Queue: 4 jobs
Job 1
Amino acid sequence: MASSSDATSSAGSTPDPSEPSESGSTPETSEVPERRGRVRLRRAAVMAVPATALAAGLMILTAQGALGVQFAISGMPFTVTATELNGEGFAQFGGLDHMAEGSPNEGDTGGQVLVVVSAIKKATLTKLCQSVDLGGTNLLIRAGEGKEKVSAVNLTTDSTELSGDAAFDNIEIGNDASTLDKSHAQGPKGVFSQQADTVHIANLRQTNYATTAAVFKLPGLKLSFSDKGC
Amino acid sequence: MVAFRRWRAARPFWGGLLLALGGAEILLTEKASLKVVMHIGMQGLAGYLLPAVMLICGLLILFNPAQRLFYSICGVLLSLGTWLTSNLGGFLVGLLLGVVGSCLTFGWLPDQEPRQSRLRWRRGRQTSAQHP
């Protein structure tokens, strides 16, 4: 009896290596003949601390716009107007946007839209207006009509039409889109592009398919439905 | 019921369950159809692949707890990866479930044999309880 209990205790399969007299006095251990386990906090922390740090790092990087987040465009064009746009670090090149598969807005486009990608590192806009035609009514967003202007960091717009009175400083036209360095974005190799140190556009009017920005501040935001677009 | 409790006590039950739930939650948040995934390629496939492997790791922790260290390390890395691939980690919920589950699994240990000194201490306490 004693030898057998010794053997099992060394193998570690039963938690009760004690003498028969003692096992009779501790009924809890004799009820559970298997090995139980539990979480050791210090051991869990060995993994929890670096995991938390990594997760926080990922979120901060995403918030700063350093990590890209992919999404499909809806295929609904929207109009953006502003009385004035001032930007630093401007780049522009051609690109192709994809709609979600089977989107009702595909039409005969095959779900792809040829767009002009405009990237501006730091932009301020006066009297921004954005409208989406929902068929009969327009979703209208206005901002920056007061003293404070709309500001954006790492603003990227994918547009099909752009009009306004533009002025550029130190413009370079005809670069390869993959060599752009004045703004935050670069295009594919072998695509025509242009870039400039600063950009100033008055009476801006854009038809866009997508807009992304790392930071987009809209002071005095007003959202409403309206019969007329911008 | 007693059998289930015994089964549960012998493995990192909550850790595995949370990791599996996290993977399932992220899979549920994915709405892209298979056609879109095939169209986008590896980027789209990863969105499904990572939470699916998370789910498998969670189940393996439950049914093969001997390899829990490997599964939990895989689980935590996959959970963090879903932030980039799968809707910001199932809108954060699945990511948190996965990380917490992996950490619980990593920290889980079966009860060791009491050390010789502890055994003696316990015995001394018992005798004192019997003869106050």
Note: Helices of chain A lie at 2-11, 20-25, 27-31, 41-64.
Job 2
Amino acid sequence: MTETEVFFQQVIIGLSNGMIIALVALGYTMVYGIVELINFAHGDVFTLGGFLALTIIGALGAAAIIDPSTLGDSSNWMLLVGLVLASGVFCGALNMSIDRVVYKPLRRASKLTQLVAAIGVSFILVNIAQFWGGLPMEVFNDGVSATAPKDFPDVLDWQTNLLGEDSAIALRVEDVAIFAITIPLMVGLTLFVKKTRLGRGMRATAQNPVAARLMGIDTDRVISATFAIGGFLAGAASVMYAVFNNSITYQQMGFRAGMDAFTAAVLGGIGSLPGAMLGGVLIGLIRAMSDQYIETRWTNVVVFGVLILILVFRPSGLLGLKQREKV
Amino acid sequence: MAARFASFARGQLIALGALALVPLLDLALPAAGMESLQLAGASRSVVVFAILAIGLNIVIGWTGLLNLGIAAFQAIGAYAFAILTWENYPFQIGFWPALVAAALIGALAGALLGAPTLRLRGDYLAIVTLGFGEIVQETLKNVEVVTQGTKGINPLPAPFGLTSDRAILWFYAYLAILVVVVYLCRNLEFSRMGRQWFAVREDELAARCMGIEPDKAKLKAFAAGSALAAVSGALYAAALGSTAEPASYGFEISILALCIVIVGGIGSITGVLVGAMVMLGITDVLLPLASDKLQDAGIGSTANVFSSPNNYKYLPAPGRPRCSTPSPVSTSRPRDACWSRAMCPAGSSPPA
Amino acid sequence: MLVSGHVPSRQLTAGVIAGFLGVGLATAILLTIALRINDVWSASIVELVAAQQLAMQQARAAAADGAAVAPIPFDWTESARRFITTLLGGGLAWSWLPMIAGFAVGASGRAVIWSRTRRTPDVVASAGVARTFQNIRLFPELSLVENVTVGMDRRLSTGFIGSLLALPSALRERAQARAEALKLLQFVGLGEKAEDAAGNLPYGHQRRLEIARALASRPDVILLDEPAAGMNPTETVDLMRLIRAIRDNGTTVVLIEHHMRVVMGISDRIHVLQYGEKIAEGTPTEIRNDPKCIEAYLGKEELG
């Protein structure tokens, strides 16, 4: 591989990872925009989406899918879309119920209280994921080790290079699938927030909850919807993550991926949807470049270093609005 | 009036006194024919984490800065202390000088992080401190030449020549340090410095209009909190005889400290003392006692999440790396392998 | 202090020492650079915003009647000292505060702007200009006496180390500050509540506490931003008495106020503003009879 090819290969990897990060980051940024809460549990909701997808695959019978001869079949695409939807709906419902049960009673409590509650929920979900990983199913290694990473079977063809077999740069079906699923979701979300009544309610609530309520917007419903949509995106992202990485584990998905996604949201300017998308892609690219040109073990240091540097010079993130206090 | 401010509050005296009595149970229970609970070691942890939480309380409770990376400064203190006392390094300056040096290095690190970032709004500061925590952890792990990587620096000489069988004496030595820390922090609380911190917490703009420079006040709070965290780290390393692996100073520890501050009532030193006893009583005394039963029920991991840092071990190796040449990093330290596809250097192609 | 078995050899070679000095030096340089960047950054903002504001004022004035209007809208000399000067104006009155503050700071020679930038308010405050806020901004969880002591901060000299070790000088200063704060609370009539939390005070008392806090810095000039807003008639009368007492103690008072009874009742001089420009200046009687002002602000009913 020439240097240029290596570079472009990393760009593809970075973009693919970045799109997944961006989807998770959208959930952070939407929730923050509406209720000013860092939803620490979001990364773990994302994890549980992956566990649900694996459970569904186990229930459907994994053998048919892992068979390499059927990898290119359209039924697998349908399975993928089905998993994305199922996992998305599950995570949306989960996120919404977390809000109802835990965050809603604390809405007027201090910010710190809410934050600690969110961290507590995160720990509970981590334990649920550990418990889930111990289920006696074949896909979970029959619960031999509840906490070990679980293999996620190949749903899509990952061997064919779409750029031709002799091309040094690999562009795989999986990469394309990620774009094919994440980009419509992002466009859809943008349109939803811009055009629909509920979306307008969201924007109004984000700007001024009290005024929004006085204008007749059911802010509780708006908040619920926000959590649901954020959860849906996380669920979709978790399936893409699992398909892309062939492995799910609560340790790396929950806290680690959550950190990356939250960093992305802050990098782009928390509360801003395009910011989260930009931040996600940027984090993905930075990770890929650092993996290649620095060293994998320094990647996390590089990511957070870049974050701190950017925040020092743009304290509200890249696309965030600067807040001024008028006296 | 001055006397009232300079001395300890009654609650603090009660809390410190109660803590001082706890290890005596180690002597009393065997004398009464019951099994010893080994409370001296747990009480020593209470002291270590109480100091950490008092440091966090300065930052979060008094100045209102959301710091989610206090464990990073504990790590800095522990490693500074270890490097200054380890027999393979040429310094070996002894316990007290190393403790003071660790505090100064912690304060410097806090100031270094704080200077450019303290004007960030609450949640941005939270993510920056969280990220800083990760940076410190990873760096300590990666700079193996200096820090011994995941092995940690050990063995460290025991302070005052105490061995593990003199746990009670050891505890009282630590308790004395805690008493000094509480005394100094109480001085700060009722001084001009403390008032500046409170004013900045309550209303930064109003404080500014009164001629206070919030940036300087915040920087001092951050440095003071970091220094205490570093002292806590040094005491932790000294007690363990090792820095333990860098992952022992992770997010969980920052959250444990946060919980200690909150459980006891944010902003109060007495509260921190009580909170430390409650939280570590749960994690270091009750959970180990109950852990057999918990393990049977399959939820033993709950204990791990909040348990003392050296108990928290990350599990080995993800199953099936896609890279044809799996990086050694991915097998030994799975925490790195978040986006595992990215682990494949572009030069290596997936196995056909 | 080392009591362990073997006595370690302290190999503090020149190389090791040099290495550590190097690291220390590098850290110090980094810290300096970080702080410096911060300062340069904020200073640039200060100048930028100041320049923008001045340009805006001048442009606005020029656009209004084609004539060049001096950027500093009124004479801030001895003649204005120890007066109660009221700025009477629409929504733009607050935009004059910077001008006044700027001139009070004087020495720096450039308009320093309240609350617009990262560092100016404390610079202004330390130059002897104190202010209150239109929407009260106390430190709600601190006691009254602590609130006032915060106002004194710029005159105190206890440093971090003094605070930490409770040095005798720090304790003495603290006792003095406390006594003075209690005296100030007496002056504004809140002496009995000194240990209550400020957040629990009724509205009118909160305003008084804010004034006490502003006075605590012993300012040359005190800016009161709509102090009578939301007050009932009794509270208003008390407030006017308090403001007069402040003037009589030798502090120049600048008032932004719309409440006619207050404005006409206590002002020594009034500057009337319309759309950010001064349309009249004079004593209450002169203003009362100025046709331009009547037209612009007071309205016929108010004059009766």
Note: The longest helix of chain B spans residues 269-297.
Job 3
Amino acid sequence: MIVELDSVNKGYLDGDDGARREILIDVSLQVEQGERISVIGHSGCGKSTLLNLMGLLDVPDSGAIFLNGKDTLRMSEKESSETRANDIGFVFQQHHLLPQATVLENVTLPSLALSKKADPGIVKARALELLAEVGIVDHANKLPGKLSGGERQRAAVVRALINKPSLLLADEPTGALDSERSHELAGLLLELNRSEGTALVMVTHNHDIAAMMDRRLTIQSGTLQDDS
Amino acid sequence: MMFRLALHGLRHYWKVSFCLFCGVFIASSILTGSLLVGDSVKETLRQEAGKRTGGVTQAIVAGERFVTEKLAEGLASRLPDQIIAPVLFTTGVISTPDKRSRANGIRIYGVTDSFWQLAGRSTPEGRYFAIGEPLADYLKLQRGEDVISRMELPGRVSRDAPLSGETESTSSIRGTITHFISPNHLGSFSMLSEQSDALNMFVPLELLQDKLNKPGRINLVLCSGSPNLGPLIDKIWTLADAELSLRSLSGGESFIVSDRVFISEAEEEAVGSAFPDSEGVISYLINDFYKQKLTVPYSVAVGIGPRSAKRLGVPLPGADEIIINDWLSSDSLSGGLAASLGDEIGISFFAAKSSREFIVIGDGKTPAGKLDTDDREVFRVAGIIPQNSRSLKEGWVPDFPGLETAQTLASWESGLPIDTGRIRDADELFWDQYKATPKAFISISQAQQLWGNRFGKVSGIYLGEAANNESELMLKLRNELNLAHLGINIRSLAEEKRMAVEGALDFGILFSSMSAFLVLSAIILVVLMCAFGMESRFEQIGLMMALGFTRLQIRRLFLYESGVICMIGALAGTFGGFGYTKLSLWALGGVWKGAAAGVAFTFNARLFSMMTGGLVIFIVSVLSIYFAGRSISSGCPRWILGRELFSNNVMNASGRRRTVRLFVYVAILAGAFLAWLGVGMEGEKLAGCFFGAGFLLLLSGIGTFMLFLDGKSGDNCVTRTSLAKLGLANLLRKKGRSIAVVGMVSAGVFLVAAVNAFRLNEGAAVMSRETGTGGFQFIGTTSLPIYEDLNDAESRDRYGLENYSADELSFVQMRVGRDGEEASCLNLNHASRPRILGVNPADLSRRKAFRFAAIQGSPAVSGSPWELLELTDGNDVIPVIGDKASVMWSLKKNIGDSIRYPDGKGGEVELKIVGLLENSILQGNLVISESAFKKVFPDSGGHRFFLVDVDKDGALTEVSGQVMKSLEVQGMALESAKSRLASYSRVQNTYISIFTVLGGLGTLLGTAGVGIVIARNVIERRGELAVMEAIGFNRKSLINMILVEHFTLLIVGVFIGAFSALIAVFPNVFGSSGGIPVWEILSVTIMISIGGMLFCLCSANVALRGSFLEAIGNE
């Protein structure tokens, strides 16, 4: 088991009236290696919050989260960072590529965060291989500003996979793309999931793409329902 | 890779990088430039000090004494590798024969070839009469022109001493100027660490020795190199160097007598230790021996001990006994008193009251001439010695000045006010035959009690047969006495020069402090730029955290990026500092010349200062950036990535409002209290109270603005009927930024303007007693000492000042310590031995002169702090009063602190600061009581510093002209007390002006920060603005809206700052202090307002440039 959420609760103080708003209520979830899961739900239902909790970008109010058997709440900030670098890949709705760095530099960026420094040559070779796999290897030395939206997002996917994570978290990765590019990217993610053996959890509004996953989870009123 | 990434970032965000560079460059330029100003000042002072002493590294200074030339010769023969120059030195007045020009306080040096060797030039040919170039420039003298210099003819002992010879004795040299001596060749030679060039004259040594009647004598030995002179001198000094001589008596016996009449206590003790059987005697002039109505005028009596009595063959006289010679015991026809054994004889004599002021003791009268039955010194005749006894004639009386040359008793210029009319023929007959042979002897203890004085308690030491010749005597005496005990000091001029420069006011620190606001503004700019730069890259930070980068790694990346820029900026700034320094030096030579004390500075840059300036700014910028970045990157990665800035402060808002409101009330009340407190005060305390009140008002103003914003933010029903109102409403959106802008601008305006509260009045000094002038009209200094009391009618008559009554013209006379240096802000050098003045405290107590900033102790009798000078705790600590500025800044001391000061006896005394004067004309000096002064400098005589009271309406010029004319021979120079005070005040005021200008520039730079805030605000709201444009608002309207918003902040800031500053400078408005610096405050306020508006305008225009379409897309 890659990830396990056990009775997780999460809420926020509302910025307008200061009242507390519960986002996730008693959520439990297990994600197995190589598994593909989609999470859907209306805006503000807590999809991204769930992903952030799984990706150690946020901490639950109560409950527990285990990643590869380790209790993430007991991790220090440094351990959390190491875990994110080694075991988790992120793809966001926005590509968040560094405009000042080339595509190749952007995709190899996560290797710098590894606690055990990787051989730059090997990292570069893997980056070029992945870029070739997603079809943008010719753009490796270009700045992100020279790429189209779809190409940038593909570069973001490569960046998420460069450290061979066991879990890939994608937060509406197709949200900024048109329908055709969205399906292309989703296909690409699934293909890489297969080839890399990475578990994939994707938040999406697109039911077609959600349908391409092994499991479909829906968040409603803060609770998680398995629709698969 | 990280570093490459950093470089990419640097290039990609080049605008931010460039702004960062500018900020660091400015800060580094200013700090480095300030330090280089310090370097330049130090180097200039070093060069000046080098000119003052040239190759002279050590000096043996005899002070009031005169050693022999042979001492210098002895040193020269033992130090063949060094140049040893014997010098005779005195001070005087120089003038042209037509009195067209005159200079007081000139230094006249009698020198030999060796001096010119030290000066690095050949000896002027012939009987030269050389003038230092500064003196020549000062008097506009030409080569070949005649000049007359006048100087005091030094007595064998201080002219304060009784029996010191004629009262007024000056000598003059008239000559034709043969050479001008450049400062590079010791033309401005001086042993004092002074600002102004010394006015020097050089003549051959023999000429000056001749003119001063000191053949073979010198009072200064100059030396090159660094040999240890002390042990050498100890080996070679002779009795003549101590102005002692061995007087051989019959029977192989001997006496030590002094050329200085009285033998100092140090000498007496040393001889006593070397020769335990020796015995001191003291001779004195008796006005009258009298028995009933018979009197014998003007005779010498001697105090003796048992060995002397034995030598005389008489019993030791008891406390009330006297041994007389048979001439005195003879009948009245022979001139005597017809006294027999057991008869009572009275004596009267002069005792020194002050300088050359004597009172008669033992005449049965008060000084006012009234009968005083207690004033009797009566002795019973216990023995009579035959007048022709050999032992009576030998040795007892020293060579009183004038004694050898006096043909008659009446012509003996003893220095005492002798009434020659009372001298009888019989007395002259005695004189013809026996000169000053003593007529009576009393016990030494009684004699010392009656005639001992600060110059010594014995006038001769009877050695018996202990030493027959000088070499035998010196063999023992050198072990017990060295010349330092006589006040003959060895001074390391090289070390003093180093101390004067190293300890001088550090202009580097001064300028750095005054530029601190400017540097701070530049750093704030750097931090703002960096913070906003990082804020604009929030997503990058969040992403990197999501990718597993630790905060440390992320901060390091940003530090690399900004560090490179900071390094380049700091490095460039070290060279940019050159420009700042040159500009500052130019200003110090022009508009800020008041702070330069007349020095023309030369540019100097030390690598160390350059590196320090650059490095400090580099470190400060990097640290500031690090901490700014730390706060930004310290959020949860999800917040950063999603920009979901949740706040828990909502619930605390009302609590904060209460706290702020309370703070505002307290600040206003405290400010009002301080202002009320200040109304009863004067000077710095008044300024301090109002400055504090202004500052509290500033805080309350900012607090009120916070409350205003808080109040408005709760007002949700506000109707925005115009863009201007909408702009105003926008102030509430980023309250923190709005408050920061107002705080920054108001604090800047306040600080820059309010510091002018400490301006001192230069022009219109109030002439009341409790002011810096002490109520005196003039300060007077003389080149030659004045021994008389100028308030005394007789003295006035003598000097031609009899036309002025005591009410119209009066003097407070002060003694001046030898080798004292000006320790005021007009001397940029560090004064290691500030000038000591000795005053009769009653003269100042009576007038309640000057205002005290602080005192230690309580003046119980008169209530005037001057009384503290007389209050000693029974120990040797001497109370001293000094000007606060001199004590605190030049001497770096405070009230209650002690200062070790070299005395005139080769030792040190402890001076304890018991009072600080506030901004007074006595700046640069330390004042002790006259009685203490006489103890510390027993050999120093006369007064040379005067505070002059003139109370004659409309006749100030006439009176001062007359005083200077009457005391022309003494070189009296009068300076208006107002003008002296103004010259001191000008320095402080110039510092304030410098701060005002630099602080103003700093605030202006700070307003550039306001521009950055605007730019950031606009950029953040581009989407919103785009929508407004889309629905029909034009660009101009949007710019106006933005400007209204930020101009409001600027105006509020300027208003709060200026209004608070007005309170702070309130005392100046009403003229009780330095007058309101309208121009400075107004120009700074206008500069900041206009500058701020321009920055706002530029920022708004730049930020609103380009298409908003993208922004709409993003929305």
Note: Residues 977-1020 of chain B form the longest helix (44 residues).
Job 4
Amino acid sequence: MIQLTRAQKQVQKAARDFAKGEFDCETAREAEKIGRFPEDVFRRAAELGFVGIQLPEAYAGGGMGLLEAVLLAETLCTMDASLGQAVCDAGHGAECIARFGSEDQKKRFLPPILEGRSGMAVAFVEAERGISSLPATTAAPDGEGWTLQGTKCFVANAQRAQIFLTLATTSDGADEAATASMFIVDAGAAGLRVTDEGRRLGGNLLGGAEVTFKGVRLTPDRLLGTPGQGLAQLAAYFIERRILLAGQAIGLAQGAMDRAVDYVRNRVQFNRKIGAFPITRHKIAELAARVETARLAVYQAAAAFDAGQADARTAAIAKLTAGEAAVAAADTAIQLHGGYGYMREYDVERYYREAKALSLTAGAPGDLRDVIGHAVIGKLK
Amino acid sequence: MNILPYTDAHEDFRRRLRAFLEAEVIPEIHRWETETHIVPREIWRRMGDQGFLCMGVPPAYGGPGLDFLYSVIVIEEIGRTNHNGLAAPLHSDIVVPYILSYGNKDQKQKYLPGCVSGETITAVAMTEPGAGSDLASMTATAIQDGDTVVLDGAKTFITNGINADLIVVAAKDPAVENPHQAISLYLVEAGTPGFSRGRHLEKMGYHSQDTAELFFSSCRIPAENRLGQAGSGFLMLMEKLQQERLVVAVIAQAQAEFTLDWATGHLQGQIIDGRPRTRSQDVQFALVEMATEVRLGRTFLDTLIVDHMAGKNVVVETSMAKYWISEMAHRNAARCLELCGPEANLERCPAVRTFRDTRVLSIFAGTNEIMKQIAGKFMGL
């Protein structure tokens, strides 16, 4: 087991204290029901330096590592699934600018996001392309810059975004030479349209939208990193993103399990606390085993990332294990709550929906198994 | 091989019902699920007009007097509409049978014609905030006072709780010590002073179903509204819960079949990177595995329906069917979400509603833990 440093334990404590003061389940339930982003909570989280905690201090990040970001995500999501995820993900995409952007781009775009003054969204996914495939969206060379054409979907946080990060195919040649690039697009750019996709199973605080680019003009300074490196950047992004989502997932799992344990300690049926029944104890034991195993995988992956040693396989294993642990924990928590578990009022149903939704993002289980299988077996001759 | 002896008359009935649901129910479901959260009484009356309610009630009481296969058809066809707000199966095949089996002639003459026509919507109130799995621990009381009975107590998670006009209420005579001999069932009309409805409960799924709390406060009803023998309530509940669990298994099977059909069609049409999703081996295997489970469920269930109709003792098999098919239906719905990927995080994806709705099947009508308890007992363990 990784021994946490004092500084890392302080991150956990700060996150716990913050959530105790700022999260309350009624606000969470209501925000989740109507799909409202908790602006006040997020602003205070940003003031404490929680947004982009793993990004450089020079651009208003926290200057810490991904393990600290995972500990933060885990703790916040344990305290509340929906609020925790919303706070963790409202600055999602900043890591791409920090990792791949030029000095100018970092200085210009990161501080407003990481200080919580502005929002951004990642628009990578397309309806008819695999999540790691060359996009159908194109950026055609156009004088000094490019013209962007295409449609992205399932874009979280789109309504709050001032800028979008997107991926487009930039070559016009034959398939084998086709390459993609990442771009930063202003939400107000002419030809950009955001269409709400309606209520979702999970992630309703951030919401989701389809984003259409119809002849959106991009100046040269909107290219992120080196041209043609888009798919390599996407692969690097997935490593960091999946580890961070896995951190949220172990938080969801722990939060659901905590609520189940609390319930079975108090609920009496057949003149006994239901926690006294062997079957209840075994169900809880199963969860404890899964959550702890997942936590090891996630911490290990985050520590490897901070040591510059994380790869696609480690990150995919962390997200697969943690995502499935979160789904199983919330599912069991509902069952142990009986009829109450199905009621909005008891929150575990919300944990279940958030967990299931999380397990589908940035690599559904099938995608993750593809990545892991490919890495483990290797190229066949 | 067809296990169930459906005749042409059954098939005609199924076609007629399906046409009715397509014309009058399916177009309204979205609004009921997302706006009103209740099915209008008018639909119940339309169901009654068309002869789709209370299939087992004999003509003497205004019913069609048909066999249980007609009920199975109604339950399945409503299940295939992918919504559970119109709880006609609960009304026709769970609540009304209490009146039909245990009511005296006067009670039947008074109440059954309205149940058949859809003028009277019914509910059954057993569960209490403190008495779920441990039904015998209920605390609602019924005290005889001359030719009246006074009811006091609270019931919860009552399906049709808001719409119900007539409620079968289980309550205890506090003078009787043995809880299994203290419970009687009473017919309570919704207008009775001292009866009130509590909150319309918000749930993970069943968003068009008016599940509610019910309160009885010095609620005085005529003593002649007792159903069957005084003190035999627990036995009546145990007897009728058999068919209730079978109904749940039929709903679960219908929803599993609906989801599999939907997912198969959807994945065949979903083109990712130029290839239908069903061309991937992992998707093919997943669909084959799910189809196998669905067929196993169907075979087990149909055999059980035949035995149930023949009056055989099917306590063990009914418990098994309720437990296994309810879990299979939800497991498969969850798996379909994974196969569909991030689009399955949107409520507009039909499998999301199935996922939310099927989660409760392993909880109500006796949790699956209670199912295993019962099966174990009758298997001599």
Note: The longest strand of chain B covers residues 148-158.
